[in-house]
Known about the structure:
The chain has a domain at 5-135 and 161-190 and 241-249: Vaccinia Virus protein VP39 (Rossmann fold). 39% of the residues lie in helices and 26% in strands. The protein contains 10 helices and 8 strands. Strands 1, 2, 3, 4, 5, 6, 7 and 8 form an 8-stranded mixed sheet that branches. Strand 2 (60-65), helix 5 (68-76) and strand 3 (80-83) form a beta-alpha-beta unit. The chain is globular, with a radius of gyration of 18 Å.
Amino acid sequence: xxxxxxxxxxxxxxxxxxxxxxxxxxxxxxxxxxxxxxxxxxxxxxxxxxxxxxxxxxxxxxxxxxxxxxxxxxxxxxxxxxxxxxxxxxxxxxxxxxxxxxxxxxxxxxxxxxxxxxxxxxxxxxxxxxxxxxxxxxxxxxxxxxxxxxxxxxxxxxxxxxxxxxxxxxxxxxxxxxxxxxxxxxxxxxxxxxxxxxxxxxxxxxxxxxxxxxxxxxxxxxxxxxxxxxxxxxxxxxxxxxxxxxxxxx
Length: 250
Ligand code: BEZ
């Protein structure tokens, strides 16, 4: 969500390998508990799978996402959607709730994101989200760091992800006027068909300055480091995800 490179999502490719992202998020929609007639902002709506789920429960959804491909896919599902980053939202006092799944870990400027979300809400409005928190993807991120450390010519590894602890995110929400009603870190071991597909989809920003050959080395060495940690014959690849699930109210 943050950089030019990471905005280029291919909805079909993304869905083929990561349909778990929205399939596992239905409990977050339950936590949102959309009501008939409500107006809800889906921040980072992706291809609109969850927006459709929310609209089925009687609310009107407006989706925003930085990827034009995803916005097109979302509109094709009949959901009103616009290209925008959560750090550039212009809404004021407009929504009964803001919902966000699997997006906020891409936003390093979390304070601006939470400020904009609070401004978009009506008084008493709620913010329900889930994203990577705590030691999310620890093995994955450590492997990337290790590979960059090994190759001086790769430059410095800059993680584009924000994985806050409960305490850190609660403090941030409270500083922007929210009362936190629920916040929990949830370990979420997540099956993936092939680690190469995951690296292809999620690490464009990390490898944006690498040559094609360097990127091939990056993928190969990450796989070698991760295989003993995240792969078993019985379960295949299982990613070490941890989700931060939150419900807060103004
Ligand atoms: C995640 O969804 O947890 C995630 C996405 C990209 C990189 C690392 C983790």
